[in-house]
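Revision sheet: C-alpha cells.
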Amino acid sequence: MTKTLHIVGGGMAGSEAAWQAAHLGVDVVLHEMRPKVETFAHQTGNLGEMVCSNSFRSDDDEQNAVGLLHWEMRAANGLIMSTAEQHRLPAGGALAVDREPFAETVTARLKALPNVTVSYEEITDLPTDGHWIFATGPLTSASLGQAIQQETGAEALAFFDAIAPIIYADSIDMSKAWMQSRYDKGETEEERTAYLNCPMDKDQYEAFIDALLAADKTEFHEGETAGYFDGCLPIEVMAERGRETLRHGPMKPVGLTNPHQPEVKAHAVVQLRRDNALGTLFNIVGFQTKMKYGAQTEVLRMIPGLENASFARLGGIHRNTFLNSPTLLDNQMRLKSRPNIRFAGQITGVEGYVESAAMGLLAGRMAASEILGRDLPEVPQDSATGALIHHITGGAEAKTFQPMNVNFGLFRTVDGLKGGRRGRKDRYKAYTDRAKAAWQEWLANFS
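Predicted:
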C-alpha cells in the first residue's frame, strides 16, 4: 500500500483530517470537486466553507457537550477551532465566525503545508487500494453516492437540511428591533448585545403562523421523502406541528427586554445573529426554510423590523445523505467491507459543523497512525469525541439510526451523582472533568 493518505471532500471533516494527518508526518492529497463541480449550497471553492449557520454553537466547556468538543479539538491542535478563534464574532456564549475569511484561512493554512496537495477533481468510485478517507458530507455527488450504495448493499439513508436566510443589516428597522443576547449572556458588552431581536405581539404572531402554513413550499422530487433531523427543522415544519411550537423554540420571548417598550412583554421574538465581522449581514436564527423564494420574502417581511428587509441570501433546502454507520463501519471508522477506506464527518451520521470536524480529526489521526505503523489505543468513551464515535459505530440502534449531535445523553453516567434537573450542573461538570482527563491521556499517545 502507498504511504499517501487520500481524503475526499474539503469540508469541515476533510480539512481537519488533512491537517491532523499532515502534522503527524503523512503525505496527504485532499480531493475537492468544487469549484469545477458545484453543489446546491456552496458558493465558493474554498475549503471549510460554511453553508448553513455561521455558528459552532456553545463554547462552554464545563456545562455543554458541544463546548466540551470545542475544548477537545483545541487540545488536539485542531485546524477548525483555531481558525474559528481567529475569525470569531460576538455571539453571547456561542462561537460564531465571519464565514468568508474563515474558509479562506482554512484553505490557505492547508495549502501552506509542504506535505498537503489539493486536487480539484471529482472522485466517483471507491478505490480498491491505498489509504482513503471519504468526508464528502451531506452533498455527496450522485455518482459517488451510487458507488457507496452499490458497495454497502443497502440504500443510503437521507434527510433534508434547510438553510436560513441572511439579511443586510442596513435594511433592518432599528426603531422596532434591538440588540441583546438572551438573559444578557456574555462577559463583555459586545457579547451581551450579540443578537438582534424583533418582537411580535399575539396578533402579529398568529398572522405570521397563518402565512407560514399557507406559503408555497419547495416540492420534493419523485421518490424522495422528507425525514428531517429535529435539530434543523424548517420553520414551516415546526409550525405544522402546532401553532405554539415556534414560540417555544426559535421564537421564544424569554430573557429579553424591549428597550423601545420595556413595559410590554413580547408574545414572540425573532432573533438574528451577526454573520460577518463588519456587522453588515445577519442570519435569522433557527429559520431554516423550504419556502419558495417569493414566499420567503413576503412572509419574512411580516416580522416587525424586517418590513423592508433586503436579502443577501434566501433560505434553501438540500438533500443530506448519510450511512447507517453502526452496521457499516468498525470502531476505526473503516468500511467493514473495504478496510482501506474510512468515512468521516456528516456522512457518518453526526450532525453539525463541530461534530463533523471532530470525526475528521479522529479519522485523520487513525489513518496516519495506521500508515506509520503505530498502535493507537481506542478513543476513550468518556471523552466527548469518544462518546460520539462510540454512538455512531455501535452504540446506536441500527434499525432506527438517525443523525446525532453530541450531547450528555451519550455519556456514561458518573456514580454517586444526583440525577434529574436539579443535579444537572454538578453532573455536567463531572462529565467534562472526566472527559478532559481521558482525552489528554489519549492525546499523549501521539507525543
